[in-house]
């Protein structure tokens, strides 16, 4: 009788979709082992994305699902562990030591909240259990040190008069031109100089065993973006946009630029999608409606999530305590964590350097 349980469990699982992977666990090769003994079924699952905040909920959902499909089972146990692997990089760049995955957070134009989104996604990934770093690639207007609450006079340590030890804030490793110069020092550099400085920031920083290094790209598709995209071992990119038409046009250019150099797009994040009046609660789509979903459909990439236009997001980032840290139990923080899980889950489906073991079925 035990032998018949395993295919029935598999069938039940194939009819359920992981909300972040957007496919079932067998298709995503997350199910490592099924063991059935004396009416007790044990499922061992390894997710390729950090899921500390939803692991128990996922396990409960699957337990209920399997129980409903196979009522003869006395007990269903679902053991979930998370393991972020290093994935293949684009182009000819060699993978970085101590950094598993580099993800560009990009936009086609400025003013869409890309940097604020990048810091909150980094903090959300860390809250889910990942080791995360941030590279501020905006040489001319670095803003991440302020958003992460790093004092204006703080400077990173160095090693061997060559390497830079990243700063740390809220559990995130960070490097930026903003911590190497004073706030009043303008970066009056031509494109090649800025690109060279960015390359040094990337390669000479002693990152400490990161699952994800998020690169807050400068807006546009110019020299710096092209140099970084072609020479850095990027794993993938995420596009930030707002619903307004002009932002969507520029977001399309960003997607096309990454596609031309064969960098996978994990999805689109629609920022400032809806404004809720803090006085009366009236909801209004100030910048238009559904733009992020349309561009995601056009390019057959996921809409990772939508974020509202909320004054707290700006105020908290400006005060050095982004929303995920300032209000960890809020709806806003929950939205960032949902997007972070979806982003990481989509990345986990990309090719890895070594094959993923298949399901081990234990039959008594």
Task: Briefly characterize the structure.
The protein is α/β, with parallel strands linked by helices. It has helices at residues 2-14, 55-69, 114-127, 144-147, 191-203, 223-231, 245-260, 291-298, 311-318, 323-326, 331-348; strands at residues 31-37, 40-47, 75-82, 99-106, 132-136, 158-159, 163-164, 167-169, 172-176, 210-216, 236-241, 265-270, 275-276, 283-284, 303-306, 360-362. The strands form four sheets. The protein has an eight-stranded mixed β-sheet with strand order 8-9-5-10-4-11-12-15, sandwiched between helices.
Overview of this protein structure:
With 364 residues, the protein is α/β, with parallel strands linked by helices. The chain has 2 domains: 92 residues, Fe-S cluster assembly (FSCA) (GMP Synthetase, Chain A, domain 3), CATH 3.30.300.130; 230 residues, 3-Layer(aba) Sandwich (Rossmann fold), CATH 3.40.50. It is 34% helix and 21% strand. The strands form 4 sheets. An 8-stranded mixed β-sheet has the order 8-9-5-10-4-11-12-15, with helices on both faces. β11, α7 and β12 form a beta-alpha-beta unit. α5 packs parallel to α6. The longest helix has 18 residues. It is globular, with a radius of gyration of 22 Å. It starts with a helix and ends with a strand. The C terminus is likely disordered.
Number of domains: 2
Fraction of residues in helix: 25-40%
Q: Can you summarize the main beta sheet?
A: 8 strands, mixed
Helical segment count: 11
> What is the fourth-level CATH superfamily of the largest domain?
P-loop containing nucleotide triphosphate hydrolases
What's the β-strand tally?
16
CATH topology of the largest domain: Rossmann fold
Strand content: 15-25%
Distance between the termini: 9 Å
Q: What form results from the Cα inertia axes?
A: globular
Whole-number radius of gyration? 22 Å
CATH architecture of the largest domain: 3-Layer(aba) Sandwich
Question: Order of strands side by side in the largest beta sheet?
Answer: 8-9-5-10-4-11-12-15
Assigned CATH class of the largest domain: Alpha Beta
Mean pLDDT: 86
Low-confidence stretches: 354-364
Helix-strand pattern:
HEEHEEHEHEEEEHEHEHEEEHEHHHE
Structural class: alpha/beta
């Amino acid at each position: 009788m035990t032998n018949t349980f395993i295919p029935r469990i598999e069938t039940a699982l194939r009819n359920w979709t992981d909300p972040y992977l957007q496919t079932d666990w067998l298709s995503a090769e997350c199910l490592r082992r099924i063991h059935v003994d004396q009416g007790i079924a044990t499922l061992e699952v390894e997710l390729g994305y950090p899921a500390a905040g939803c692991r128990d909920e996922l396990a409960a959902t699957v337990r209920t699902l399997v129980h409903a499909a196979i009522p003869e089972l006395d007990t269903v146990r679902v053991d979930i562990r998370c393991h972020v692997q290093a994935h293949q990089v684009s182009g000819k760049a060699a993978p970085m030591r101590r950094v598993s995955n580099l993800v560009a957070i990009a936009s086609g134009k400025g003013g869409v909240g890309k940097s604020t989104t990048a810091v909150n996604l980094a903090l959300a990934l860390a809250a889910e259990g990942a080791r995360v770093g941030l590279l501020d690639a905006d040489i001319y207007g670095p803003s991440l040190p302020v958003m992460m609450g790093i004092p204006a006079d703080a400077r990173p340590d160095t090693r061997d008069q060559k390497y830079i030890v990243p700063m740390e804030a809220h559990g995130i490793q960070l490097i930026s031109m903003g911590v190497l110069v004073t706030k009043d020092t303008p970066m009056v550099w031509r494109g090649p100089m800025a690109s060279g400085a960015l390359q040094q920031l990337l390669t000479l920083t002693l990152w400490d065993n990161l699952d994800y290094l998020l690169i807050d790209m400068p807006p546009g598709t110019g020299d710096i973006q092209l140099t970084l995209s072609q020479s850095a071992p990027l794993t993938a990119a995420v596009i930030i946009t707002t619903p307004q038409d002009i932002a969507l046009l520029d977001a399309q250019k960003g997607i096309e630029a990454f596609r031309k150099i064969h960098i996978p797009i994990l999805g689109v994040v629609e920022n400032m999608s809806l404004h809720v009046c803090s006085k009366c609660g009236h909801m209004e789509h100030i910048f238009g409606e559904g733009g992020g979903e349309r561009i995601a459909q056009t390019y057959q990439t996921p809409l990772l999530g939508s974020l509202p236009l909320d004054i707290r997001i700006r105020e908290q980032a400006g005060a050095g305590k982004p929303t995920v840290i300032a209000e960890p139990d809020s709806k806003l923080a929950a939205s960032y964590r949902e997007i972070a899980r979806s982003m990481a889950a989509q990345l986990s489906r990309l090719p890895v350097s070594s094959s993923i073991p298949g399901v081990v079925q234990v039959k008594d």
